[in-house]
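If you are new to this repository, start here. Below is one unmodified record pulled from the training split, so you can see the exact layout before writing a loader.
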Amino acid sequence: MDTVKKFLTGCFENFKTVITTKYARDAEAEDPHAYGLLLEHLTLKNAHRIIIFSVFSFIAGLICVIAGEHNAFGITGSVLLMTSSLLFIWLMCRTAFESIPNINLINMFTYIYWIVITAACILVSVSEQTEGKTPYFFLIYIAAAAAVPVAKIYESLFFAAVMLIYGIAYGVSAQRGVLYYIAAAVVVISYVWISSVARCCYSSLWLGRRRLSTTEERCRQISRRDTLTGLLNKTGLAAKFSELSGKKGGTISVVMVDLDNFRMFNHMYGYDRSDECLYRVCNCMRIVAKPYTDLVSRFGGDEFVLVFENMGEIEVVKIAEQIRQSIETMAQTFGDSIVTVSVGVSGAKQLAGNNTYSELLNEADEQLMVAKSSGRNCIGFKGRPFIHENRRSPFGAK
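And here is the target side for that same chain:
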């Protein structure tokens, strides 16, 4: 009994939150963008499924005509059923399946269709009733309306109002007893209840999945960023390069920057000063590279990698020299000298998948070794060091 009581209480709470629009207001307040996407999703879901419903409506109208509807109500309702169904299918195929569907237009078509299709079903049912038959067509309409899932609350209330008004009208004309009216009221209330609970559950599931995917995406973004500098880390750089590899054509150049003798800096000043130094070096690189690229990453402890698209090799070397000079100009104290960097520049290569990424990194690393073996605080490119005539001596240089 407790389980049944909890189930009924939960259903009633869902019903109440949907009917009073509390659920909608709470969801919209929590994440307006997500709620807007949910409404668009529900609209498209309804539109796609109502297209299927329209196919069966057209067939039903065709059967009514073939079966020989002689009553004016029946003929009018059958023709209206067929024409409105065909028109709706045509309109929806032109709007609901576009790359960017017009949600307002779909909503308008849907509301008009339900009004017309309801009128058509009532006309056919009245035809059956005037011939002394039970209005089976309206019973089919009720079943079909209940079968269209994820109906919006306004559509649910519209269907419920039609069921109630026509049910009462039929009961009065057919002189039905009290039990009939009780049964009709139960059907209407049950329909609104089930529709509300279904909408609430479906919306909760959709919003829950969106929150999960959003959380996963945020975790993915965090995992691809260096916590100290905010730059891409090695994983983030590999992911970005994979995206670049999907582009056709174009060239890529890689610049690798390494702080000279930075392990000694750690020993002399400690990790707090080292982190501060790394952050300042990172800002220098970011400011210099900003007009040319956003792909700046912390590749290792004191190694940084920059990626440049569709730029000439000489231009990339000039940017690398600007980075070297900006860090030298920063004049971060390092013993009796200053913090300097050595830079390796790879040649420009055509995009050709993941192999290009590895090749460029290896080549930039080799050129970095050329710079280091040439006295540091200079640039290595194509096996040669590019040494500025006024360069400062790095820490530990003789």
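Two things worth knowing about this chain: The chain has two domains: 2-219, 234-386. The longest strand covers residues 251-259.
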